[in-house]
Amino acid sequence: MKITVVGTGYVGLVSGACLADVGNDVLCLDVDPAKIRILEDGGIPIHEPGLLEIVRRNVDAGRLFFTTDAEYAARHGTVQFIAVGTPPDEDGSADLKYVLAAARNIGKHMDDYRVVVNKSTVPVGTGDRVREAIVAELAAREAGFPFSVVSNPEFLKEGAAVDDFMRPDRIIVGAGDERAIDLMRELYGPFQRNREKMLVMDVRSAELTKYAANAMLATRISFMNELANLAETLGADIELVRQGIGSDPRIGWHFLYAGCGYGGSCFPKDVKALINTGNERGHDLLILNAVEAANEAQKLRLVDKVVARFGEDLSGRHFGLWGLAFKPNTDDMRDAPSRIIVAELLRRGATVVAYDPVAMDEARRIFGDEPRLAYAERPMEVLEGADALIIVTEWKEFRSPDFIRIKQMLRHAVVFDGRNMYEPSVMARVGLEYYGIGRR
Ligand code: NAD
């Protein structure tokens, strides 16, 4: 099948590469010439495990191409995926300017039947706006090509995106006409050979499904964080509580980890966008407002602990920090708790040396020339001369460090662990003063 993917970010590039990998002829379009140059030079502009290999394999096989030429892209694919960003606008609503620009471009240049498939996370009703944008462009050209609009929200997780796309739990397809549904079934056939995973519904329900999923996951995290903070005041241990409730199949194990807040390119913006949708309809979404407020406070929870230990004024203090990405296995720092934590430590006068396996370039771009923030090439280097170690992202390589050396290298042998990576009893045995989230 001939496919165009508009946007070569985390979702677009993974989708394009995986669709090419099962034999399709895929053209990826981006407005950012720097990204296309990297791709044409045989690289990828993001860190995503396994992606580089798939991209190279399919480029070599002649099934995957890249372009900045919008007209060429609109004429290539019968299926046109829109996978561009939907960042939050000032009021928290999803900014649709990239989605609608992509739709207008398709309308302007399409020369045959097109299925326009929206993979970006968009508010309910966007399918109608995409349709209107295409109709307007076609009318301006006095062209009458038929087209369908489909909602096909993406559920891949950064850090495991290739695997998620190749082996999805479910494929949500919101569509109103059989021709489009048949095409989507054909397209996703190779990803659901063992069992039917495609759930077909109307466009609006599909659009809302994506927000519902992310809002539910964010709710679980904020709920556990709130209980963790309470557990600290009660002398209870949130890890034991987690095990106690996760073993109930009605609750399950996923997304029950307390920590220093959720971040990333999806949960924060999607929760805000859903709250905004509610407001537009006169529904105050009480639970989600609380989920968001709890998360904002939680991002500063580690700094609160640092302040409780070292005082309000941190000038002259120096901290080693492990983890900048919003979660392991990605270089993405959008809305990452590390951004708030580092900024607050610096604001209080401290200096910081940070280490992250892949996100340090991104951190340099975000924090710029900040003289009180430095980076280390290896995790143990951040400990040199540091008053304490602060852990923000649970990278695998931090799971079992040399605690004796940590104790020897730190000036105060204090560890603030925003991801509950270690057992307080082990830390006590080693002689490290340990502060987790909700741990006894
Ligand atoms: P991203 O910012 O990584 O990539 C978006 C890309 O689109 C950029 O490269 C940008 O240059 C390009 N672009 C913007 N306008 C364009 C246009 N008119 N034509 C061509 N290219 C254009 O974004 P992302 O993380 O891939 O997210 C894309 C969408 O998917 C968002 O709505 C997001 O909420 C959703 N989503 C993201 C994830 C995730 O884990 N990142 C998961 C599921 C859904």
Automatic annotation (TrEMBL):
Primary enzyme class: oxidoreductase
InterPro entries on file: 6-PGluconate_DH-like_C_sf, NAD(P)-bd_dom_sf, UDP-Glc/GDP-Man, UDP-Glc/GDP-Man_DH_C, UDP-Glc/GDP-Man_DH_C_sf, UDP-Glc/GDP-Man_DH_dimer, UDP-Glc/GDP-Man_DH_N, UDPglc_DH_bac
EC number: 1.1.1.22
SUPFAM superfamilies recorded: 6-phosphogluconate dehydrogenase C-terminal domain-like, NAD(P)-binding Rossmann-fold domains, UDP-glucose/GDP-mannose dehydrogenase C-terminal domain
Alphabetical list of Gene3D superfamilies matching this protein: Cytochrome c1, transmembrane anchor, C-terminal, NAD(P)-binding Rossmann-like Domain
Reactions mediated catalytically: UDP-alpha-D-glucose + 2 NAD(+) + H2O = UDP-alpha-D-glucuronate + 2 NADH + 3 H(+)
Sorted UniProt keywords: NAD, Oxidoreductase
Record domain UDP-glucose/GDP-mannose dehydrogenase C-terminal: where: 320-424
Pfam families named in the record: UDPG_MGDP_dh, UDPG_MGDP_dh_C, UDPG_MGDP_dh_N
Pathway per the UniProt entry: Nucleotide-sugar biosynthesis; UDP-alpha-D-glucuronate biosynthesis; UDP-alpha-D-glucuronate from UDP-alpha-D-glucose: step 1/1
Family: Belongs to the UDP-glucose/GDP-mannose dehydrogenase family.
Name of this chain's protein: UDP-glucose 6-dehydrogenase
Organism, scientific name: Aromatoleum bremense
